[in-house]
Design brief:
Layout (H helix, E strand, L loop, with lengths): L5 E5 L10 E6 L12 E6 L2 E7 L14 H10 L4 E10 L9 E3 L2 E5 L24 H12 L5 E3 L2 E5 L7 H9 L4 E3 L2 H10 L3 E11 L11 H25 L25 H6 L1 H4 L5
Helix pairs in contact: 2-5
The protein binds zinc ion.
Length: 287
Amino acid sequence: MAEATLAFIGGSGLYDIDGLSDRREVTIDTPFGLPSDDIVLGNIGETSVAFLPRHGRGHRISPTELPVRANIFALKTLGVERIVSISAVGSLIEEIGPLDIAVPDQIIDRTGSRVATFFGDGLVVHVGLAEPFCAELSEHLMAAAAEYSEHVHAGGTYVVIEGPQFSTRAESELYRSWGADIIGMTALPEAKLAREAEICYAIMALVTDYDVWSQSEDDVSVALVVANLMQNVETSKSVIRSLANRLPSDRNCACGSALKDAIITSREVIPREAKEKLFPLVGKYLD
Ligand SMILES: [Zn+2]
């Protein structure tokens, strides 16, 4: 039986969650090393939940250094079927303001220093990513968020930059010209790896500020950004409880069979080491 079916990965400011019954913590080692931190397990209502602070408690790990493969693999081995990422972002458009919530439906990859697949070493897999987020999970997430915010934006494009520096003004204007709506540093490779692990993935993006394109704004003070971040963290804790209580246990999306037609390597030439290492991901297709 699964230790947890629904996982939350907490971003900047969100290092723990409230209201868990039967709370416990587990250390999980994976073929990709240790996750960002120990994983918190417990129940919210009828739902078994896992929580992982993305940057580690105390915020020790930069976006580029995140052990994303270990994080997703560890959640997979716990039985997790759905992941909700909670992330602080900047806004690239006027209509999405500070303290608003966006649930994006598209993504642009501007990272460059991250391993974005579990596969290789003799086992080649090409999953589809036309729709990078789970629409079903996103719908439930938006409904839960709407209980706590009048400013929930459905859809939109999240541009993921490598960081750790923020964008230049020219880059920010470039992303705006591409039609991007919000900007952050962590949605990838999480979304790609979740798809490879056949786990539903959705993002609750909480806006702290307008990115540097907004020259009309006075220079936003760090104090204001931090105050917004703290308020967003409180909102996200409420949304987490609401979502866990409202989410039906069965999935009606295609995420759970993302690898069905994606394994291109002939079964008979897949190395034994790859099969063993990736058994939690591909075992059901290799019989
Ligand atoms: Zn799904």
